[in-house]
Structure to design on (392 residues):
């Protein structure tokens, strides 16, 4: 997330030593197709804050903290339907990214980086409402220490950029619940739409962006028993746009699920909207 | 008398300017491919004592540095600065005003 980079995942591009990059992204998730026929609907709004610090030209430290606002509408026997919600800071993620291979030429670069980190259970996992404890998916925090890591590669030229990432997250148990592990394969293509020809200086760019996310989630488990109505495969296609200057980036994308092969009665995604900015300071 | 004072003032101004040894460095930078990359490099250069101005040409992959004298940057320190920023020094040239020839160095680190 250091330079012009994917909107829905990370990049292998550097953060200068001793410098910071801040990213703020608003993520609006809407789920609506309910295979169970119960007409459940879920809404999630998140403001995700990321701070990146360049430890060296190859090593970057990231901290990520979301503020979450979740709501679930579900049927209630004898009462029609009921809405349950929560709001608060979620779990904090801290990770390092290290450049394994770097090949620089005039006007282009190719990088391969490894990253790895931990998700710290700083969010609340015991919120309650009038009906009692909130379901686990509605809690702001997971209550569990989880690990994740992967590889990310970037090829950037003056005209376009291609990024790809392979990652895996291992979730541990908390409160008798364990979320399924998650494997992801992400890709991004960013093409410079403006200016068409580069003049002197450092002009602002407008990139057209097309990204794809293949996400496989294992089944969740409760008290050691797998939940048949969880997990599965989702493939998103995400068109987007970026405005890139020396100092800041403005960006927006919509993730559209083109494949959803989810287990049992898992609530399906309708769409995810992402918009935000990044800035150097 | 007045004309003598004016002439002496002009002479002193010219002498001071001549002795300033203003120097330009032309840095070839590899790996620099988008506007957001440039900020970190320019910020690092501007922190150096004696650097007065920095001007980047993204399309050419070059950075002009205006400095007070020829001791402000060296090829080695510049290579390290760019590595710390996450990029690679391709070439290092020193341009002095009035020079007919300039010092140039191709760092030779082409991939």
């Amino acid at each position: 997330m250091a330079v012009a980079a994917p909107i829905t995942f990370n990049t292998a591009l550097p953060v200068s030593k001793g410098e910071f990059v801040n990213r703020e992204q608003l993520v609006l998730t809407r789920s609506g197709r309910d295979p169970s026929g119960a007409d459940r609907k879920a809404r999630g709004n998140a403001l995700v804050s990321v701070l990146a610090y360049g430890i060296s030209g190859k090593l970057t430290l990231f901290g990520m903290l979301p503020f979450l606002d979740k709501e679930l509408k579900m049927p209630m026997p004898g009462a029609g339907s009921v809405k349950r919600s929560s709001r608060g800071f979620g779990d904090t993620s801290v990770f390092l990214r290290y450049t394994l291979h770097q090949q620089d030429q005039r006007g282009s670069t190719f990088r391969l980086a490894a990253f790895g980190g931990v998700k710290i259970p700083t969010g609340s996992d015991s919120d309650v409402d009038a009906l009692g404890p909130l379901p686990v998916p509605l809690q702001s925090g997971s209550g569990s220490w989880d690990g994740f890591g992967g590889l990310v590669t970037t090829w950037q030229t003056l005209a376009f950029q291609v990024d790809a990432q392979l990652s895996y997250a291992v979730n541990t148990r908390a409160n008798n619940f364990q979320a399924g592990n998650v494997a992801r394969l992400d890709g991004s293509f960013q093409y410079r739409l403006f200016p068409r020809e580069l003049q002197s200086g450092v002009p602002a760019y407008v990139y057209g962006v097309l990204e794809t996310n293949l996400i496989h989630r294992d089944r969740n488990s409760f008290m050691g028993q797998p939940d048949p109505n969880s997990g599965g495969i989702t493939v998103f296609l995400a068109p987007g746009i970026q405005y890139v200057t020396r100092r800041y980036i403005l960006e927006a994308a919509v993730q559209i699920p083109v494949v959803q092969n989810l287990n049992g009665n898992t609530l399906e995604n309708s769409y995810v909207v992402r918009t935000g900015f990044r800035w150097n300071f | 008398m007045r004309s003598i004072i004016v002439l002496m003032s002009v002479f002193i101004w010219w002498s001071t300017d001549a002795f300033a040894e203003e120097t330009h460095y032309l840095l070839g930078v590899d790996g620099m491919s988008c506007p957001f990359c440039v900020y970190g490099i320019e910020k690092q250069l501007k922190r150096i004592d004696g650097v007065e101005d920095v001007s980047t040409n993204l399309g050419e992959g070059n950075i002009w540095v205006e400095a007070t004298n020829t001791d402000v940057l060296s090829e080695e320190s510049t290579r390290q600065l760019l590595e710390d920023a996450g990029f690679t020094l391709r070439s290092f040239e020193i341009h002095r005003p009035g020079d007919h020839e300039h010092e140039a160095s191709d760092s030779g680190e082409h991939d």
Q: What stands out?
A: The CA atoms of residues 8 and 14 of chain B lie 10 Å apart. Residues 2-19 of chain B form the longest helix (18 residues). The interface with chain A takes residues 28, 30-44, 55-61, 83-88, 90, 110-111 of chain B (CB under 8 Å). The mean pLDDT of chain B is 83.
